[in-house]
# Entry
Amino acid sequence: MNTPQTRRSFLGKLWFLLGGVALAEAFWLAGDFLRPRNRRTRRGTPSSIIVAGPVERFETGTVTAFREGKFYLARLDDGGFLALHRECTHLGCTVPWRQDEGRFVCPCHASSFDIHGDVLSAPAPRPLDLFSVRIENGIVKVDTTSPLKRNVFDASQVARP
Amino acid sequence: MAGIVTRIWRSIFTRPIKVEGERDQRRAVREWLALHARPVRVRESTLPFTHTFGLGGMSMVLVILLMATGVLLMLAYEPTPATAYRSIEALQQDYLFGGLVRNVHHWSANLLVAVALLHMLRTLVTGGFHGLRRFNWVIGLSLLAGILAANFSGYLLPWDQLSYWAVTICTGMLGYIPLAGPWLQGLMRSGQEIGASTLVMYYAFHTTVIPVTVLVFMAFHFWRVRKAGGVVDPVPPDPDSDAQPGYVSTLPNLLMRELAVGLALVAAVLVFSVLVEAPLAGPANPGMSPNPAKAPWYFLGFQELQLHFDPLFSILIVPILGAVFFLAIPYIRYAPELSGPWFLSPTGRKTAAIAAIAGAVATTAMVLVDELWLHSISDSVAPVLLRGLLPLAIICAGIAGFRFYLVRRHSPAGAEQVQAMAVLLLSCLVTLTIIGVWFRGAGMALVWPWQI
Ligand code: FES
# Structure
């Protein structure tokens, strides 16, 4: 059975296999180099938490922009807080707050959102993403590690002092 | 002394440089490396400029211009968010003709997209995808994809408001692809959002992998043309007649024409680049989106589609259907396999013209109807159905009906039908792009071009 013929074909197959393994390794390597790396710090570490300030500083019905954290801190009429990611959920433009109209209007394709981040007009498919807000000893803190997706606004998302 | 110089010279150029008489010319083509990619003789009937408009050769000239200017730009450019924009400003101020070099690179890149598309159109309507050329059509489409990838990756590099937001929007579209979307978006942005790692990745690909791939595919493309016996013959030899097709030697007949076209093109690009500056907006500001924020022009047709279809359809299904159709063109069975003169025949010319007009008119009409009427009634009602399946079904039915009409009315051959369908789709794409470029103003509302 062990003729040179079969041995040769076995070795040939082995070469093929080795070549395949080498190729897979090369792809694995390239894949890892291309893998997005989260350069931001991990959840809960001090630098990802932004101290917004004492509760009294924010009047009800206003929206304050935080540039470094890339979010808006909205104080609702009932005194609750929401931290809204400033990225439009349509294609990712930055939405400015219009105090006179009382809503966010995206410059790119004219989506608009109310103070809760809820969609007032399409094409945006879902409300603005949220960052979690904690209020400790009357100080508002926002964890900007990663934005939370949601489908509608509901009262449980609001942080109250 | 003179002896050694001659010996070195002879060792490099094994044949005399001076070409005299037809035999020398043929030998030169056969034995010079640079000319080896060409056949020794070509059909005389393929020579007229209006048969190919030299579009393939023009693409190659533009690629050479891009590589030359690209290397110069690499010497001045710094791929980090903090320095990229400033390095472009420095390039324009402190380097000899730095601005001009950037302009040539910018305009050649944009022109290359247009020329490559026209080249594809020319190949399509002269039937240059049968038999031996079948796979070369696929290589050509891959080259088009490579050119688009090069353009898009280069678009980010100036790191100005235009590039930052265009790339944000285009990668934002990827997020809508079901299942793989978020992963793909992360890959294309190299992270959650566009930043330092995105810029480095785009720079690396733009300057290495993409151009090298394009070069390799170009060589492959040319070689296949050579193997197929040069470009399609506009006057295919008549099997019934004894008349021998007329051949002439490549040097000087073809090469001198190509040289003339190439030089004229370089001159045109230079003059244009002297007169028109490449756009450069303010430095990228992630906190403020410009209004409107548009993709680069070659993707604006897709962005326009976005405004009318559910994302699943505009980003995935419609582009895939289009790509499959264009890839399938050479693999459809044709009887007979028509090729040669532009639009194949008088019937082909008529049907193609009708298709082009129909595509433009129907697209404009659909955009207007959707924008002015449907938008107001269809908000938030089952988007996949109302803004996806239903319009797609209507459009497919419309295309089928149009084809039925053509067959009934003008009885085109199979090749002419496929040609008409391809022209129809291209006309739709061009119309969408024109609307996106010139008729979309603030908030992507429909406006007149002079109101933008
Ligand atoms: S990105 Fe905001 S509406 Fe399109």
In short: Chain B has three domains: 1-36, 52-290, 298-452. The radius of gyration of chain B is 25 Å. The CA atoms of residues 122 and 201 of chain B lie 35 Å apart.
